[in-house]
Amino acid sequence: MDRALRILAPIAIGVVFLAAWEGVVRLKGIPPYILPAPSAVAMSLWVDGPSLMGSLLVTLRITLAALAAAAFFGGALALLFSRSRILELSLFPYAVILQVTPIVAIAPLIIIWVRQPFLALLVCAWIVAFFPIVSNTTVGLNSADRNLLALFRLYGASPGQVLLYLRLPTALPYFLAGLRISGGLALIGAVVAEFVAGTGGAETGLAFRILEAGYRLAIPRLFAALFLLSLTGIVIYLLLDLLSRRLLRHWHESAVSEEEEE
Amino acid sequence: MTKRFASGLEALGGVDLAIARGEFLSILGPSGCGKSTLLRIVAGLSKPTGGSCRLRLGGRAEPSLPAGHIGFVFQDPTLMPWSTVAANVELPFRIARRGRIAGRVRSAERDRAAASLAAVGLAGFERSYPHQLSGGMRMRVSIARALVTGPDLLLLDEPFAALDEITRHALNDDLLRLWDANRPTILFVTHSVFESVYLSTRIAVMAPRPGRIVADLTVDLPQPRDRSVRTGPAYAAMCETVSAALAAAMAPR
């Protein structure tokens, strides 16, 4: 019942919203270059679909590469921070600076400095995506239960054992929470970088198609591209959420289903 | 032995205590009297700022015992939520296999873990995860883990304080039975007069600020004990004596 509601309720809202949108556009005769009707967007999605899909693939490649790099370097950096307090104290502020600097402002520089277009976009998306993973995982690695730490000491555990058996499992839910945030951010980072880069490279991502459609007043296509973009974001989130639930299903509060609880 | 924290707080001010092998000693006192600090020093998890703590296994008295000779039970079950009950109990063996970092537990060790779980009445729960168990069962897992290496010294830090009374009585009896079976030396920190009288052969009453031992009482009740002890006059008299000692400890000097 609850499960069905969870799926049906948002769908119902969506259908009502789209119907109202369609109705308003038709009744008021709003021209498509101001606001295209959903039917026009769907039409464009059908016609331009194949070419948009190609662009989506370009953007998706940058997003996934950036996310993978963020997961890897973010995790490694967090591991380094947890091993050395000095390193954490001296480097963490710079990670924060990188995080709070608007990517739009530094993207042009990165695109000039990094000559290879794919790599330049990757770096931009990575800068946006890596911080949640670093900060979350660092917190996770340092939140091992104090009594469990004492127990490990009592049994003479080596630092490697403490890391492997205690700190890493403790950090896993934190890392996964960071990863879920970073998934969306990587996509945003990739899109922003593409916006700034313009035609920069030989391949054109979805963001460029949005810009292009805007210039040509092909607003239905712009909406179609936007739709694909949000759909991609949702799919990335759902996949990461699924991964997180799979990995934590036996033990973590966030993943243990209610029936299993006593 | 004394202990002063970096903050300047004097947790232990001159504690002098000798514990005989096979004794069940309760350390009784109000919160903040340094009971847990004392226990942590005995476990080697904390160092005294003055004096020393020595443990004798066979010949010479050493500041600490080799890993596996001391079992520790915390106030919380302190289990790894991502591991099964069996893996939690096998942890001391897993750590002992330092050669290979992800060393597998030998089948003999697996059997000992199963036996230890059976001893606390949790046979058949090996594959469960801690979140699937009740609070009392989790505490039993924690006790099974402390016992799995066959320790000579068992340290318990208010292990039953967070449990309801029914579970607490059941675990009291379990603990007595386990002590009777192997006779490890037990140091049991508690703030319950009744619990300390029921369980121990000797009670050290502590007073706070600075933590010190103000009374050292021998509990002269028949062994082995069962629930009938709780209703006898000797038990009541002993509880009264201990309560009086505790009240004196709490009184401002």
Report on the architecture of this protein:
Chain A is mainly alpha-helical and 262 residues long. Chain A has 2 domains: 1-30; 38-248, MetI-like (MetI-like fold). Chain A contains 9 helices and no strands. The model of chain A is unreliable at 258-262 (pLDDT under 50). By secondary structure, chain B is an alpha/beta fold. Chain B folds into 2 domains: 1-65 and 152-253, P-loop containing nucleotide triphosphate hydrolases (Rossmann fold, 3-Layer(aba) Sandwich); 79-150, no CATH class. Chain B contains 8 helices and 10 strands. In chain B, the strands form 3 sheets. Chain B has a 6-stranded mixed sheet, sandwiched between helices. Chain B has a two-stranded antiparallel sheet with strand order 1-2. In chain B, helix 7 packs across helix 8 (233-250). The mean pLDDT of chain B is 82. Chain A binds chain B through residues 145, 147-148, 150-158, 160-161, 164-166, 169, 172, 250-253, 256, 260-262, and chain B through 40, 43-45, 66-68, 70, 72, 74, 76, 78, 80-83, 91-92, 94-96, 98, 101-102, 129-132, 134.
Structural class of chain A: mainly alpha
What percent of residues of chain A adopt helix (DSSP H or I)? over 70%
Quaternary structure: heterodimer
Q: If you compute it from the alpha carbons, what radius of gyration of chain B comes out, rounded to the nearest whole angstrom?
A: 18 Å
Instruction: Please outline the major beta sheet of chain B.
Output: 6 strands, mixed
CATH superfamily of the largest domain in chain A: MetI-like
Tell me the span between the first and last alpha carbons of chain B.
22 Å
**Strand sequence of the main sheet of chain B, in spatial order?**
6-7-8-3-9-10
| Shape by Cα distribution of chain A | flat
- Uncertain runs of chain B are none
